[in-house]
Amino acid sequence: MEWYLRVATDRDTCSRMLPGDLDLSGWELRKTLQLFAGCNLPLLEWLGSPVVYLDGKLAENLRSLIPMFFNPRKAMHHCLSMAQRMAKENLGETIKIKRLFYIIRPLCACQWIQDRATMPPTAFNALFSGCDVPSAISAQVERYLEQKKDAVEAEAVQLNPELADWIRARLVHFEETVSETPVPSDMPLGVLDQILYDAVTANVAVMGTEHRHT
Predict the structure, then answer these.
(1) Which residue, of 1, 103, 131, 186, has the greatest Cβ tally within 10 A?
(2) How far, in Å, CA of 193 to CA of 200, rounded?
(3) Which 3 state secondary structure label does DSSP give 17?
(4) d(CA 112, CA 128)
């Protein structure tokens, strides 16, 4: 609370490498809710991750609010930009297998958003199975997925020309159609204000109880 009630703002992010290559990242609650209101895709993907270390009411509440705050056009711009950058830097006759999926995944997310205007699943299998992909391309992606299971991060593979052509065609398609993606109406920020208020006042109440007991 002493950190929170300062006139001068302090660092509101946390980032730390823990033993076992566990990368810890996060934000202070107000900043988290601001990012959520702005449809921050990394935050929404974290909330949808199938791997959960610790869960609680806050995460549960935010998951339920994703449809209300999801911005299809902003999300699609984010995914397309990621795919374009990774393709520009890595697409060639050979490619590191992990980076290949850094291109395929956001392209599938673009397809999901274009088809449904909803938040794409974080898990790749759920995302890919929900996209209408030609059978020949699907077979290639499945083959690379199998290779990826046993590959080291830096391992390069020969890129199938048909898959490469599909990637380029998808990049062009989404670049031409992203502006047609819908945008939401005004966001009901009051519901996020209430989450912040409840969290802060609950913390004050706990601190008051601890003070009385000491």
Answers:
(1) 103
(2) 11
(3) strand
(4) 9
| Count of other CB atoms within 10 angstroms of residue 15 | 10
Beta bridge partners of 3: none
Residue with the two structure tokens 């609680």: 56
Domain chopping of the chain, boundaries: 1-69, 72-180
Burial of 19 (0-12, 13-18, 19+ CB in 10 A): exposed
Over the stretch 177-187, which tens digit does the pLDDT of each residue have? 999 999 988 88
Q: State the Cα–Cα distance between residues 8 and 107, nearest whole angstrom.
A: 41
Q: How many CB atoms lie within 10 A of CB 144?
A: 18
Give the list of residues 6+ apart from residue 154 with CB closer than 8 angstroms, or none. 96, 98
Q: Are 146 and 138 in contact (CB under 8 A)?
A: no
pTM, to two decimals: 0.88
Alpha carbon distances (Å) from 113 to 3, 6, 117, 121, 206 = 39, 40, 4, 10, 42
More confident residue, 90 or 53: 90
**pLDDT number for residue 69:** 96
Instruction: Output the CA–CA distances (angstroms, integers) from residue 195 to 43, 101, 178, in the order listed.
Output: 16, 36, 32
Average pLDDT, the chain: 91
CB of 48 within 8 A of CB of 63?
yes
